[in-house]
Design goal:
This protein is mainly α. Helix content is 69%, strand content 0%.
Length: 98
């Protein structure tokens, strides 16, 4: 009904775009569900390392810098979920943040 209304008001150009956008939404939902099932990190608390690890490995004092570093690690893990292992993340801390 809604699509028919759009066709009446805007012609045939809107319908293909709406269908494509709906497909994009379904693809995004599928990807989100896949990420949830793979149990990848989606927030800092999901990381295999903690603020204590950051402090221990980097020598950074407790504070906002620790949160910033954890945020950067999260970005890495969001791009490559296989990195979310304690040993791997501690190695990254040693190499990148020391």
């Amino acid at each position: 009904m809604l699509i028919a209304s759009f066709e009446d008001d805007y012609g045939d150009t809107v319908v293909p775009r709406l269908i494509a956008e709906e497909a994009d939404i379904h693809e995004l939902c599928d990807r989100i569900e896949q990420e949830r099932q793979e149990a990848s990190a989606v927030k800092i608390a999901d990381l295999a390392v903690s603020g204590d690890d950051v402090i221990e490995v980097t020598g950074v004092a407790a504070g906002p810098e620790v949160g910033r570093i954890l945020g950067e690690l999260l970005e890495l893990v969001l791009e490559k979920p296989e990195l979310n292992e304690k040993g791997i993340l501690r190695h990254i801390l040693e190499q990148k943040f020391r």
